[in-house]
Amino acid sequence: MTFAKLWVGDLVAGDLGDVSAEAIYTDPPWNPGMARIMRQWAHADTGPVDYLELVCRTALAFARACPSGPWYLQAGPRPSVWREGLRRCSPLPIHTIPATWGTVANPKPYYVLCANGAPPIPSGLHGKDVTRAVMGQVTSKKSILDPFMGKGQTLRHAIPLGVSVFGMEINPKRLAAGAAWVERHHPEVDLSLESGGASWQA
Asked: Most buried pick, 29, 69, 80, 84, via CB within 10 A?
């Protein structure tokens, strides 16, 4: 039975628990200049935050949760820091794929990193076509992890394909929006919500 295991948590703080998934697809904060978000991750009110250190801690969490499956990461317009963090945690090649987001009339460039053995997706995709391409690569997997779930982009594309989702999000309102979508559109899915770290196995 397809499931959606969702919980409020902070990946850098260790709230991922001992989740075990077969693939990862996520869209983390991109920019080292996002100091407020970075400080929130590090639970620090003031002072500088080492962006690469937080990226490496994120990549280590990926390696624990999904040691042998593909990782797909939306890495923003300057993906070098994320690429370095992933490289330190996986010896397999990393494919850096150009894509765009925003409106069709005013597309904005960014990159998708395909890591830990992930087959590359086509280059030049726009918007939700990126997610559709990733889902096309993971339909044979039983479960996928999105530790920066937001309102549930991964959830909304994986569940209709019968791929179960582990989703973590630091913002409770965003998490609730994803859960509400599952309840409304896929009541047959085994949905569970937690307020802290998770300990689920695929």
From this structure: 69
Where are the alpha helices (H) located in 11-165, listed in sequence order?
Answer: 35-42, 51-65, 80-89, 128-138, 153-158
Q: How many CB atoms lie within 10 A of CB 195?
A: 9
Task: Spell out, as residue ranges, where the chain has pLDDT lower than 70.
Answer: 31-49, 195-202
What's the rounded Cα separation, in Å, for the pair 92 and 95? 10
DSSP, res 149: -
CA proximity to 127, closest of 185, 171, 72, 74: 74
Distance CA 164, CA 151 (A): 16
pTM to 2 decimal places: 0.89
The domain limits of the chain are: 3-73+126-194
Contact yes or no for 118/95 (Cβ under 8 A):
yes
CATH class for the domain made up of 3-73+126-194: alpha beta
DSSP state, 43? T
Contact 181, 152 (CB under 8 A): yes
Assigned token pair, 145? 């992890």
